[in-house]
Amino acid sequence: MIPFNKPFIENSSGLSKSQKVAIFAAFIVAFALVVLRPLLLKAGPSGDFMTIFRQTRAFWEGESVYRGGNPYLPGIYVLMAYQVFLDPRTAWLIWRFLGIALVGTLAWILHPLLKRELGNWKGNLALANVLLLSGMSPWSGNPGNLAGIMIVLAYALMSATSPFMAGVILGLATALKYSLGLPFIVFALLGKRKRAGFVALSTFLIITMLGVMVAWAHGTSPDALLRSVAFGIQHVGGYEHSGFTRWFTSENPYRFQLTTIVPLLHSLGLSGSEANLCCLALLAMGVVLSLAIALRTGSFLSAAAVFSPFFLMCTYHRFYDTAILAFPVLLGWKTDDARAHWWLIVPSMTFFLSISNILQTRVLHAGFLSKSWLWNWVIGPHHWYALIVMSLSVSVLVLRKAGRMLARP
Length: 409
Known about the structure:
This protein has helices at residues 17-40, 47-60, 75-79, 88-131, 143-159, 163-176, 178-190, 194-217, 222-236, 241-248, 262-267, 272-297, 300-314, 326-334, 338-348, 355-362, 373-379, 382-407. By secondary structure, the chain is mostly helical.
């Protein structure tokens, strides 16, 4: 059964030779993705990293970064203040090493917990499954790349009975990317992780308010800042014409780099506003269900597992945000329902590598397959289908196992 409050215990027996080989191979691949990929394949700073780098410098030098639309709250520039004293390549190297250190810390804390709950075989495979999610590889300069890893690390610290440190990490992740972190603070506050939730909320507010005061001292009022952030969200989220046309339209050849299914709905004939409305309605369903789970069961993991695939599927995200799929993956491993293994764990393998991105950059630039039905409806959107399956599967799994708890007055 699902471990709302108690872990699913499996007798830990010795591993066979084939099991040891499988585990070794999985961790070799994980090492290649988590450590070698970001160090060897990104010689120079990425575009996302340079955007934040330039904005951070401008912010601390007294320039307004909120003249137009800017979706980031100023807390991110407080956390990135170290970049003011460094050249881009050095700051980029520190960013990548920090990401590797965070993933290493996550593995170090999570491994004994999973081994105790699941036994040697399943515990090692569950950890490898988490580490092989694309978002666990700190190759991108987007803040969400580290924020997602930190959110999962905060959960591991909660499970290891370190609520204060878990709250600090979750609060830092939220200051780094509030759109990714805030929902998980809510789940902590509504469930049985209240201390971690209060510490996270306090950490986020302190850092953000410090950034607001610095911006105000440099001439950007809180009102102007909030209006800029609101417009930035509207633009980046595709809720106005130019933003939708830039990222979400079915004519955009790079639409498969997104995790949201908005371009899929647009390909099926829906207008931009209709596609966004459908996704917001789906997200509302996921939010209601995850909040109900948090309130009735107190389980942070179960609420986060339900919410994460809906969130990635219905709003603007890319592969670097997929670290939060660790929650449905862990829930799938921790249940004895074999169907969960097929309908949660197997689809998560889609996110080991961003196959669509690899094909697009290595093959499709020459036009090969780019206009074919196979690419546009099977290969390109394969990860969208995986998210749809994961969203439905985790909802059914949680509702079936928690039905009696939800019905209890």
